[in-house]
Amino acid sequence: MTASVLRQHAEHQFAEELEELQKVDNRKRPTNWQLSPWAVVTYLVGGTLENGFKVTPKYIGSRRLMEVAVATVATDRALLLFGVPGTAKSWVSEHMTAAISGESTLLVQGTAGTSEEQIRYGWNYAQLLTHGPSENALVPSPMMQAMRRGKIARIEELTRIPADVQDSLITVLSEKTLPIPELGSEVQAVRGFSVIATANNRDKGVNELSSALKRRFNTVILPVPASEEEEVSIVVKRVGELGRALELPAEPPAAKEVARVVRIFRELRNGQTEDGSAKLKSPTSTLSTAEAISVINNGMALAGHFGDGVLSAADLAAGMLGAVVKDPVQDQVVWAEYLETVVKERSDWKDLYRAFREQL
């Protein structure tokens, strides 16, 4: 894996941590797992190992929630990570799969155009026309590969996949087999196989899961960060990691700047000021933690390439408007009202108010 890769897979980026966990992990491991369930949770939430090695947290939140998720995969049930956009569903899915299977690339990305072949299998049509249906002409999907090798298959944005395609998972999840009627055969899942899917109900284009499919999943709901302090710590950690990965020529933002962005997002998301003294209108956008990270990273890029390298209110304002105002009519009204009734009244936010007003 070369240094020029823009984004490394989790199993490569955190290879040292996974290796150190394997050294001290003497607990029972399910078949084909690289680590025990305890070690997988430790990898996700972080901690100090017996040999003094520190594992960085990948998920900042409830340890019990991660224990429930990992315990689900240790059974014969599939796992559905559910929540509003930006609650680290994909992040947790990737890292959990990397820790369990040692690879996180057996992935089906759900879209409105995802077909049944992408979940089951396809065909090499040159081989198919020349020799007819055969094992050589078969193109295995990530799901089929995971079943054959006893690995974890990931499905991102399950609710964006058309309902009839979603239901092609029912046989795989209930019978642990994938029929290939053209060959008169089937692929049976090897021990260690499971499915981790992610879904949210806030985006446009959501296809509700059928009751039959829902019953095949254990659902774990990932909540938005419970407190402002927790959300700030998440943003600071991810901004630092992404800034280093992208080699942004700017200083890491001061905690004060991160806290101000997080507070704006939380207040607009919750429909009230942080102290509960005033009710607010909420915009149509989700204003997730992931969006806050994006706003600050964009500001760092502006500060590094077009400024003095120090994140300023003007750098933040440039990305904030695009994050909040998704609907140019409705959200513009909400944002303008928030500026005049909240931001303007905070004496230590005068620089933000001036920068935001210039963007309108």
Can you give keywords for this protein?
360 residues, alpha/beta, Rossmann fold, 2 domains, five-stranded parallel beta sheet, two-stranded antiparallel sheet, 17 helices, 11 strands, globular
Describe this structure in words.
The longest helix has 19 residues, at 228-246. The protein is of the alpha/beta class. Helix 3 (37-45) crosses helix 5 (89-101). The chain is globular, with a radius of gyration of 23 Å. The mean pLDDT is 92. It folds into two domains: 10-221, P-loop containing nucleotide triphosphate hydrolases (Rossmann fold); 228-359. Helices cover 48% and strands 12% of the residues. The chain has helices spanning 10-13, 15-24, 37-45, 63-74, 89-101, 116-119, 125-131, 142-149, 163-166, 169-175, 211-214, 228-246, 255-270, 289-306, 313-324, 330-343, 350-359; strands at residues 47-48, 54-55, 78-82, 107-109, 121-123, 138-140, 152-156, 177-180, 185-188, 194-199, 217-221. The strands form four sheets. The chain has a five-stranded parallel beta sheet with strand order 4-7-10-3-11. Strands 1-2 form a two-stranded antiparallel ribbon. Strands 5-6 form a two-stranded antiparallel ribbon.
